[in-house]
Specification:
253 residues; 2 domains; 9 helices; elongated
C-alpha cells in the first residue's frame, strides 16, 4: 500500500484538487489499514475525479482492484442533483451512515443500542457454540475471562458503550457461567460484583465490563492530553483542542 500512499500524496501538487474541509489542515486524502481503505476529498466533481484517477492508476499498476459489492461513497452538504450526477459517473453505490469499518460501526452521532447489538449477538453466538459441550464451572469461567472478554475489549477501547449493552453482555456471561446456556434462568449462587473482585478478596478475578470500558477510554484521553504523535490525535487537536487546556475546556458537542 506504500505505492498507493505516494500516489494519493501527489494530489497535493494539483491546484484543482480540494481536500475535505475537515482534512485540509493535515492534508489527509485517505486512511488505510490492511485492505480497508477510506478516501476523502471535498464534494466537487474535479476533486472526486482526481482522487479516483489516482486510485485507478494504483489499481492498474498493482492489479489490486476495489470490490464494488463492498465499496460505497458518502456525501453530505450537496444537492440531490449533484449527488445523482456523481452517482452516474461512479461505479460505487451510495452509502449511508452509520457504516462498518474495521469491524465496528462508524456514526456521526453517539452509538445507539441497536448499533451495538452486533457485539451482544457475537457473544451470544459464541456461547451457543459451547453449550453443546460439557464444560465445568472452571471451564466456563476461563472462557468468560479470556474469549468473551476479548470480544468486547475491541469495542470498549473505542466507544463508551451504552449501559444497557454492558448490562446485556454481563447478563449473558453470568447466565452462561451458572447454567452453561443463554436461555435458562437460574438464581446466581454469588453476586456478579463479588465474582469481579480479585482473588485476594475471594473473588474470581472477572473484569467488570463497565469499569473496564471507562478505564480503556482513559487511554484515549491520555493520548490526547499528552499530544501523542498519532494522526487521530493531531486531528483532535487541530479541530477541537487547538490551544486550549484539555483539563479545563468544555466538551465539544
Amino acid at each position: 500500500m506504500e505505492y498507493l500512499n505516494r500516489s494519493l500524496k501527489t494530489l497535493d501538487q494539483i491546484p484543482d484538487f480540494n481536500y475535505h474541509p475537515r482534512c485540509a489542515k493535515l492534508k489527509i486524502t485517505h486512511i488505510c489499514f490492511a485492505d480497508d481503505l477510506i478516501m476523502c476529498c471535498r464534494a466537487d466533481r474535479v476533486s472526486i475525479q482526481l482522487l479516483l484517477k489516482a486510485f485507478h492508476h494504483f489499481s492498474g499498476v498493482s492489479r489490486l482492484h476495489a470490490n464494488m459489492e463492498k465499496s460505497s461513497f458518502y456525501v453530505a452538504g450537496v444537492t440531490d442533483e449533484f449527488k445523482n450526477l456523481i452517482l452516474s459517473e461512479m461505479q460505487f453505490t451510495l452509502g449511508e451512515f452509520p457504516f462498518k469499518y474495521l469491524g465496528v460501526t462508524l456514526s456521526t452521532k453517539k452509538l445507539s443500542i441497536a448499533q451495538c447489538m452486533p457485539l451482544v449477538e457475537r457473544i451470544t453466538t459464541r456461547i451457543k457454540c459451547w453449550t453443546t459441550k460439557f464444560l465445568s464451572y472452571s471451564g466456563r469461567l476461563q472462557l468468560i475471562r479470556s474469549v468473551l472478554f476479548e470480544m468486547q475489549t475491541y469495542w470498549a477501547q473505542i466507544f463508551l458503550l451504552p449501559k444497557k449493552i454492558i448490562h446485556m453482555v454481563t447478563t449473558t456471561c453470568r447466565t452462561f457461567l451458572w447454567t452453561s446456556s443463554t436461555d435458562i434462568s437460574k438464581r446466581s449462587l454469588v453476586s456478579w460484583e463479588k465474582l469481579c473482585m480479585p482473588g485476594s478478596a475471594r473473588g474470581l478475578g472477572i473484569l467488570d465490563f463497565y469499569s473496564w470500558n471507562k478505564a480503556a477510554l482513559c487511554k484515549i484521553l491520555w493520548a490526547i492530553s499528552t499530544n501523542k504523535d498519532i494522526l487521530w490525535v493531531k486531528w483532535i487537536h487541530n479541530f477541537y483542542v487547538k490551544s486550549r487546556n484539555i483539563s479545563t475546556m468544555a466538551t465539544p458537542k
